């Protein structure tokens, strides 16, 4: 079994224990690990490292595709082993360590980190730890459920540790398309004009001599959990689908829609799920992550093709999809995140990008990352890669958070990840605001009328009225712009005093 | 002379007066005009329109490449004729009308407006008014000193008015490279891998039947004025060049540097000028606008090639360059702004993008457009196209504005055009902060130590200390984040009270 998965026999003598492999990683090193939104993370070497980190000083700079699964980010944070973490995470304990200032977290566009690594701006990559389905006859590494930055890590690292995971179906081989842009000035166009185009090779070819260790594991990806669609997320989905139908009718979008990208999380998943009951057919995804919704759309016969960088599923969906993964080989491609999120391809294909906001302001600026402008949630992930270059950049959010004590539509966002220039449409369960071709004062009206929750309408109207009296392209009252946020800190709610009283009366 | 410039003789009967041509434009129409940072604007038809607008109700939606010259934006604003203006302007009177809320100004990425126009999201384009050097035998329009959006306007408009400007040298013909991306899903890669590559045609080919009027003019572009480099802008230039030299030495940049983009205005011009005295040779520009500095670099033998969308010069430089423009035909290309600024090409070529900030904050967010977060200066222009997709995104600004009463480095910018994710380097006359690979708390230190003016050091250190005590990835005190701005409004200066007293003592 193992030997079938390591087809270059000269590598068989590199098989060793996770502890032995982990000993290649020294204090102070920069390490690149596979793993993207839980999928395809290395499972044994990180654990061995954490065990060592409890016994001896061991601090690393950790680069990944995106967030790790199996509680790894949390355990690494608890062990105090992370000096620097990039480009994304989604773990409560790591988040807390970041917000205490203990871990230097560099929150970066997912397509971009590898450019900086390649150019040397992030220093030397000492070691890569890559989960693989197999190693081919030529020593090429076949990834598992994500590609992420694994290919570039393997290429750029001084030494490579491969984890062959027997629990990942051998049939994953053939799903991947590994294309890595050449170094400039030899960089060429990415000749990808359809979501289903293959432009690379099925595995990551490096000099096999760089493979310093092979560890055999047998453990599935950690499944994700997804809140079931609720009335609000279903309403968001409905508003967006109605809008897309109108755009098609008006001739502004093609009948089968351009390829779709959808962000992580419950809302984005619900929006995609909603397409099952829409009139649209022959849809394509050109996205970063395939969640359950992608496979529901396949089942419903709605989806013709899906391209992404990782597959992250709930346990029931994983149990269904993974054993049958061979059936998806002509309908799914997994690519390096540099390609799945590449500005060139995103713009060329004219994606509809659907991402989730923490908060939006009335002028169309979006905060995806920082609660109260200070505390990191997860990171920008790929949302900027897509929003900035898509044909139609949509942000979704519930109009309220924390049982109505927080409005997700605010006078001014406390942190900007997506500027007014990059946000075309905002959708809440209340409705949809189409901001294209609107000046800021018009955007404010559209967002207030369509997206804002009624319980915040009066206080927003009051703010805008007084702001407009002061003039400007984008009217604001600077000394009050964050007053909703400071009020929530002081009183527990963004609601103005009279509304709070009315509520408790 | 005129007949030589209109080589398709069947069009000769379309020659008419500006008043006659302008009568094709009716109240309420959407009009696309040539013109980009003063260069190549239509000169007679807009004046005829303005004259009519004084006598009868005449309001238009005006789309251009970027800002117009010849005081046109100001006169149109004064005449109250602009309902909607996009995507950029740089005129004091239009700016005032925008900030009063009289003109709906849609401030857009320069590469992107035309995508929205093409898809129908900006409505129907009734008429295009394009300045031309000539019309060819096949009826193709040869632009003058800018291409901007002229090609797409001519293609998309129902009717086209051409102004043949005899004052523009006939030798401009051959300088342009007109490539317009196909409609999706037929969109293909832009096969441009060097600044000097030609991928299109020398003129804008449309059905000649659409050319409804031809007006003959004889008036040069309005020259620009540029503040001479001063001690501060020279220092900015020196810091940046020293940094680039170090990057080359460290092997992170190639010896001749990647192609450079530089924004508009005095500082960006001074930075480029400074390269004359640098060790760099065989430089290339892949930029949006060529200012005087580009031609100084040609003269100094430093510049091998320059690609842009427009040429805007001071009067003395114009007098030198324009008569000799034929000599530049193998060293200069003018492209549609969709191509000069295209994310695909910007990322592929790995540009060094140098743009000017109004203010930056200590975490590396940049405001390029809104004074005090409310009042529009010019617009984002192409800075977002470049900053988001460049290899190295540099923002320059003097550390002080308004004689030191304003610090251009603030705790939090009042408007974000370029997020922390898109800003690699900040340079003031004090020094340079390299933000790559730094977490926000580290960025704050780098910017405070290298870029902030010493007169603001104490009050910034105090803010940061208290903000850090509250925690977070990006520490802030929301109720004080804009206190420098509100203090400036109240006291005339951002300086804290003690510093103001010390100053006046
Ligand atoms: C924005 C984002 C955090 C939303 O996540 P989600 O799971 O879809 O949405 P939820 O509504 O469950 O919100 C997550 C948390 O934020 C909180 N939240 C939401 N809006 C809030 C607001 N305006 N203020 C404060 N907290 C808010 C929720 O209450 C919830 O908190 P909890 O974890 O304590 O319950 C998530 O989509 C994200 O990290 N996006 C950035 C990266 C990205 O877009 N990637 C996509 C490209 S693949
Ligand atoms: C940012 C920008 C306005 C700077 O212009 P500039 O001519 O190089 O710089 P200046 O220092 O002369 O500043 C212009 C004005 O802004 C004012 N200003 C500068 N910093 C300021 C600040 N922090 N707060 C308030 N005003 C400020 C200056 O005092 C000056 O005012 P004045 O016209 O009343 O004298 C200009 O570069 C711009 O519009 N950029 C956005 C578009 C862009 O980047 N295009 C480039 C892609 S081609």
From TrEMBL, chains A, B:
Return the InterPro entries for the record. AcetylCoA_hyd_C, AcetylCoA_hyd_C_sf, ActCoA_hydro, ActCoA_hydro_N, NagB/RpiA_transferase-like, Succinate_CoA_transferase
Matching Pfam families = AcetylCoA_hyd_C, AcetylCoA_hydro
Domain called Acetyl-CoA hydrolase/transferase N-terminal: residue spans:
15-215
Q: What class of enzyme is it?
A: transferase
What's this protein's family per the entry?
A: Belongs to the acetyl-CoA hydrolase/transferase family.
Q: Which UniProt keywords apply?
A: Transferase
Q: Which domain of life is it from?
A: Bacteria
Keyword Transferase tagged: yes
Question: Residues that bind CoA, according to the entry?
Answer: 358, 378, 382, 402
Residue numbers annotated as active site:
288
Listed SUPFAM superfamilies:
NagB/RpiA/CoA transferase-like (SSF100950)
What does the record give as EC number? 2.8.3.18
**Protein known as:** Succinyl-CoA:acetate CoA-transferase
GO MF term set: acetate CoA-transferase activity; acetyl-CoA hydrolase activity
